[in-house]
């Protein structure tokens, strides 16, 4: 069903009349109605325009046969759309407050073939506009794609700061933020080519998935380099490359057996977005009488005692003055975001999504999004950034959790923030009942709260906090212990770029200092971490250590799929096993300044049946397992033999 333009003015008059609250004043009413009439005539005298349609194209054979197009152009709502293509039908076209928008609901039947067709827009004076729309053919196996899982090791990198593969794109004429490598908050020129050119590095390092901070167009003033102020949801930022460069990067990663996780943001977008000059409707974004920040208290969403006003401010307050806050309760916004994420999965061949600021968006919308996404891709993976400090608060956001309020997020992966904090302090403090080694044990013991403790992304640092090596007081022994723990405990570990070469930086100095350029990524860099040139002895040691552990992990079934059993730490020594029926790995972390030698009787429920083992880090062979020695501040990762 289509509404034609003559009706649209009545509808709009109605909406505006209500919003002006002019019921009681007949003079005002008459004046406003006359103005509407004049506006209507004026509108019809001016040519309508068609500036864009989003999604710009779609695919034949998607499971969900509905598709909503956002059409934008001057007075486009005065036109009537039509399509003549077998299997594609206009169900309705919807007028909204702003006459420059039209939303078209399409039905794309399962028998619609890939191909192109015209969407024609006929105006009141027979003005005629046309858009060539394409239904692409889906890649084989697209719906059956497998997302990342706990067998993966994820490498997080900030594209502007990793490698500048194409200095010619550092500056883009239509982008306001110009390159400035000397400025910690400026654009440094890193790009998709820089990432694509170093697939061999990722492969040899032993990571199996890449998570890039957002690479959408972010046309806002400094700082824009981080990518979280999106100004076009269908365009890769030209300073990173093109949409095709992005797809090519994913293809090259896949050729090396590496998955790609796309960072997306549903909570907010950059003020430089073209919407902000001409919003489709007033409630497209959450608006306040004056600028109001979020209170950043994500815990209010699960807190049964939270004040409504606190929760509202958490959700509807803006994340930053430069970032407009989406109102996902608006059904057009909701559909826009859902389709946008599916578009990228399908277009680029993604293996996963990392969703930013997860609890800041309407949680019922987020659950709906997950259902829609997994309806198209049942084995897809999404990890949500629910940045909360305690396990119960994080667990609230994992799918099928037994929440008292009945909420089910349908989100399959969460980040393990509590374990991140535990790793950050366990190696820096004395061993007590709940400190030191016991902190790791205690935190892992909270896993009963998770629906699935394997579906967790673990990490020691990321782009939002202090660099791990700084947290550890630049102590290489602690680094090795912590890395051994991170790469052998449950979950899918995520490593922040540069952590493998001991990059340092503290958040309070500014975000630019925890997101410095990866050495060797720029022409003429004096140090090159890709080749090893100029790395200090310690850096080279850490890189080799991490590489060895990651590559071993890649082939360890016990780590990738095995269960976890851990034992109460004694005298600062934490022992745990990852095991399957016929395979086991014993991990011993000696968080003491003295070496420890101990009997292994109390681990018999895991050791029975095994008689020897090899420390995969030092290649030390243990011809017996009854008594084991571990040097001071060291972890042993022992592959057990029958
Ligand atoms: Ca560049």
Structure description:
26% of the residues lie in helices and 22% in strands. With 642 residues, it is α/β, with parallel strands linked by helices. The protein folds into four domains: 7-45; 52-138, Sandwich (Immunoglobulin-like); 147-558, TIM Barrel, CATH 3.20.20.80; 560-641, Immunoglobulin-like. Strands 9-10-13-16-17-18-19-20 form an eight-stranded parallel β-barrel. It has a six-stranded antiparallel sheet with strand order 21-22-23-28-25-26. Helix 7 runs parallel beside helix 8 and helix 13 packs parallel to helix 14. The N and C termini lie far apart (71 Å). 46% of the residues are buried. The model is unreliable at 1-25 and 31-45 (pLDDT under 50). The chain binds calcium ion (CA).
How many strand units?
28
* Order of strands across the main sheet: 9-10-13-16-17-18-19-20
Beta fraction: 15-25%
Tally of separate helices: 16
Rg to the nearest angstrom? 28 Å
Which small-molecule ligands are present, each listed once?
calcium ion
Q: Averaging pLDDT over every residue, what do you get?
A: 93
Largest sheet: 8 strands, parallel, barrel
Q: Give the C-level CATH assignment of the largest domain.
A: Alpha Beta
Give the helix level as a range of percent: 25-40%
Helix and strand arrangement:
Layout: H1 5-20, H2 26-45, E1 52-54, E2 58-59, E3 66-72, E4 80-83, E5 88-95, E6 101-108, E7 115-122, E8 128-136, E9 154-157, H3 192-196, H4 199-205, E10 209-212, E11 216-217, E12 232-236, H5 243-255, E13 259-264, E14 268-270, H6 308-316, E15 323-325, H7 331-348, E16 352-355, H8 363-376, E17 381-384, H9 391-395, E18 413-415, H10 417-426, H11 437-444, E19 456-459, H12 468-471, H13 476-486, E20 492-496, H14 537-554, H15 557-561, E21 563-570, E22 573-580, E23 583-590, E24 596-599, H16 604-607, E25 612-615, E26 621-622, E27 627-630, E28 634-641
Parallel strand pairs: 2-8, 9-10, 9-20, 10-13, 13-16, 16-17, 17-18, 18-19, 19-20
Antiparallel strand pairs: 1-3, 3-6, 4-7, 5-6, 7-8, 11-12, 14-15, 21-22, 22-23, 23-28, 24-27, 25-26, 25-28
Helix pairs in contact: 7-8, 10-11, 13-14
The chain binds calcium ion.
